[in-house]
């Protein structure tokens, strides 16, 4: 699918070293060991978000249809349940919200705002007809087009990071024809 050798944690950019197998135990970035599953934030709400990318490099965003953020656009996702890992949570959430079966989420960004920790993952989007239980609209947009819509603050940060790696020449499109099945 998609591979990015960088990750953002709290607005700091790290380069992923080769050989990292299970980032939920620990990961080494720029020769620093960091634990990313249990960020120290007492009482924080942990949320996973999906950066679902279609074969043309467009990203799915969805408009909330309830609550204080009604009418605001976001990357689909939701809260972690109990001691659930963020990568498991995003697979569960997009199945529940969008009826999309996904595998191999690739962690791209961890951002915090107040008492919210947002884990954002790149995922392949293979489904063409998207409907959501938690949103009244969805759109597939090229990354630079996302800014045209009112976004949640943390999703703006993630979009900034996506644009940064694209400007550096990273391609977020699918790489191989066999990935499109």
Q: Can you walk me through this structure?
A:
The protein has one domain (6-180): Nucleoside Triphosphate Pyrophosphohydrolase (Alpha-Beta Complex), CATH 3.90.79.10. The N and C termini lie close together (11 Å). The strands form 3 sheets. The chain has a 6-stranded mixed beta sheet, with helices on both faces. The chain has a 3-stranded antiparallel beta sheet with strand order 7-6-11, with no helix packed on it. A two-stranded antiparallel ribbon has the order 3-4. Residues 17-38 and 176-181 have low confidence and may be disordered. The chain contains 2 helices and 11 strands; from the N terminus they run ββββββββαβββα. It is an alpha+beta fold. Its EC number is 3.6.1.55. Its cofactor is Mg(2+). It comes from Rarispira pelagica.
What secondary-structure arrangement, pairings included, does this model have?
Elements lengths: L5 E4 L2 E4 L11 E3 L2 E3 L10 E9 L5 E6 L8 E2 L2 E3 L6 H13 L7 E8 L2 E9 L10 E7 L11 H15 L14
Parallel strand pairs: 1-9, 5-10
Antiparallel strand pairs: 1-2, 3-4, 5-8, 6-7, 6-11, 9-10
Domain count = 1
Overall mean pLDDT stands at 77
Count of distinct strands: 11
The CATH class: Alpha Beta
Elements, N to C (H/E): EEEEEEEEHEEEH
Which assembly state applies to the chains in this document? Answer: single chain
N-to-C span: 11 Å
How would you describe the shape? Answer: globular
Q: State the CATH topology.
A: Nucleoside Triphosphate Pyrophosphohydrolase
Derived structural class = alpha+beta
The main pleated sheet reads as: 6 strands, mixed
Strand order of the largest sheet: 2-1-9-10-5-8
CATH superfamily: Nucleoside Triphosphate Pyrophosphohydrolase
The share of residues in helices is 10-25%
Domain Nudix hydrolase: 43-164
InterPro entries: MutT-like (IPR047127), NUDIX_hydrolase-like_dom_sf (IPR015797), NUDIX_hydrolase_CS (IPR020084), NUDIX_hydrolase_dom (IPR000086)
Enzyme class: hydrolase
EC number: 3.6.1.55
